[in-house]
Amino acid sequence: MKPIQMVDLVGQYQKIKTEVDQAVLGVMQSAAFINGPEVKHLEQELAAHLGVKHAIGCANGTDALQIAMMALDLKPGDEVITASFTFVATVEVIGLLGLTPVFADVLPGTFNIDPADIKRKITPKTKAIVPVHLFGQTADMAAIMDLAKEHGLYVIEDNCQAVGSDYTFPDGTVKKAGTIGHVGTTSFFPSKNLGCYGDGGAIFTNDDELAKKLRRVCNHGSDVRYYHEVVGVNSRLDSMQAAILRIKLRHLDDYGKARNAAAAFYDEAFKGIPGLSTPERSANSTHVFHQYTLKVAGGQRDALKKHLEENGVPAMIYYPVPCHLQNAYRSARFGEGSLPVTEAITHEVLSLPMSTELDNEQLTHITTTVKRFFNS
Q1: Strand 276-277 to 100-104 pairing
Q2: pTM confidence score
Q3: N- to C-terminal Cα separation, the chain
Q4: d(CA 201, CA 209)
Q5: What was the pLDDT predicted at 60?
Q6: Distance of CA 26 to CAs 20, 33, 39, 189, 356, Å?
Q7: How does DSSP classify residue 287?
Q8: Environment class of 121 (CB within 10 Å of its CB; exposed 0-12, middle 13-18, buried 19+)
Q9: What domains, with CATH codes, occur in the chain?
Q10: Which residues of 39-69 are buried (b: 16+ CB within 10 A; e: fewer)?
Q11: Residue 259 pLDDT
Q12: Other C-beta atoms within 10 Å of 307: how many?
């Protein structure tokens, strides 16, 4: 059996090696390393794939969130509602811009932000909502967009984990994650479902004027070289990463099918195990399984993780400490006990290997190892 990894990037590369190597060599030969044709082609292809008017490359997913907030003219003291159960980058950019993070709880099944709690947290200072499409499926965007419209708020989608997920509205309309709010953002970190071989990110919008502002902020606040209209940043997706992403974008749907096949294998194997909950599927969203995350009840999570690792199965805890209990973001308003669902699941969640390259032998070993723990 091949060694099991959380994400087998080497195995994935081997399958597309010829395509990737040729693409990288092409960039080297052109020497168009910054904002070259590959970046422009990727932006066009991403927009077409997702069904959005504008896709704008940038340096990473964290920058994508920051640039979105800057382009929307959010000001210090403005409140931004988001989840605490997320990677810190979501909250980090709020703090960097002097905005005030306001944390809403999540739903215990899907781990996505709870629209009912968003509603409870809206104040006259609230200016934006940042739903995080966690682990591969879209938050309840119909409810979130309704709240945003009612209260005149911006919606910035953190879509770093759910590129390719489809969300179905009550009227049957289907949109891709990241294309529903005023702005969508994503990361191309190597382990993402659509990942490059370095760092990168992108921003999406259907608003023509906002797209101009987003591009301006990315480029030092400039539309014309050496003329700077606003304070901006230097955040560019380099051409080599764009060339790699163009290759991988062509395989993205197949990657999603492979991840769903692995998830179905896990689901079947874990049926009926007391104390073990498999990932809940949203009624409104497809799942692209950036992570396959179990909930382990009865305080057994850490022991199961140790058991897996002793048997050659890596496992990860995403996320052991929620953002509102991190030292950098603690406040009197959000102390321990303020987000009960979030705080409970941080002691229960455990993510198993999830990769396009998982084979039946590996999946059998993983699931047998899990079942042996509960049967011992």
Answers
A1: unpaired
A2: 0.97
A3: 24
A4: 20
A5: 98
A6: 10, 11, 13, 22, 26
A7: B
A8: middle
A9: 9-249 (3.40.640.10), 252-375 (3.90.1150.10)
A10: beebbebbbebbebebbbbbbbbbbbbbbbb
A11: 98
A12: 18
Q: What is the pLDDT of residue 94?
A: 98
Please, which residues have CB within 8 angstroms of residue 25's CB and are 6 or more apart in sequence? none
List strands edge to edge, sheet with 79-83: 54-58, 201-205, 183-187, 154-158, 126-130, 79-83, 100-104
- Cβ neighbors of 256 (< 8 A, separation 6 or more) are 164, 193, 288, 289
Residue 227: per-residue pLDDT: 96
The Cα–Cα gap between 41 and 245 comes to 10
Among residues 211, 145, 226, 177, which one has the least CA distance to residue 51? 177
Residue 329's identity, in one-letter code, is Y
pLDDT at 376: 76
Distance CA 206, CA 181 (A): 9
Cross-strand pairs, 106: 113
Distance from C-alpha of 68 to C-alpha of 74, rounded to nearest angstrom: 9
And the tokens for 5?
Answer: 């990894």
Question: d(Cα 283, Cα 281) in Å, to the nearest integer?
Answer: 6
The dihedrals phi and psi of 260, each to the nearest 5 degrees, come to -65, -35
Give the model confidence (pLDDT) of 133-149 as tens digits.
999 999 999 999 999 99
Q: What is the pLDDT of residue 287?
A: 98
Helix ranges (DSSP H) in 51-171: 61-71, 89-96, 115-121, 141-151
Residues of the chain under the 50 pLDDT cut: none
Q: Which of 103, 98, 39 is nearest to 69 (CA)?
A: 98
108 burial (CB, 10 Å; 0-12 / 13-18 / 19+) is: middle
340-345 CB contacts, 8 Å cutoff, 24+ apart = 340/105, 341/105, 341/106, 341/107, 341/108, 341/114, 342/83, 342/84, 342/85, 342/103, 342/105, 342/106, 344/108, 345/85, 345/106, 345/108, 345/111, 345/295
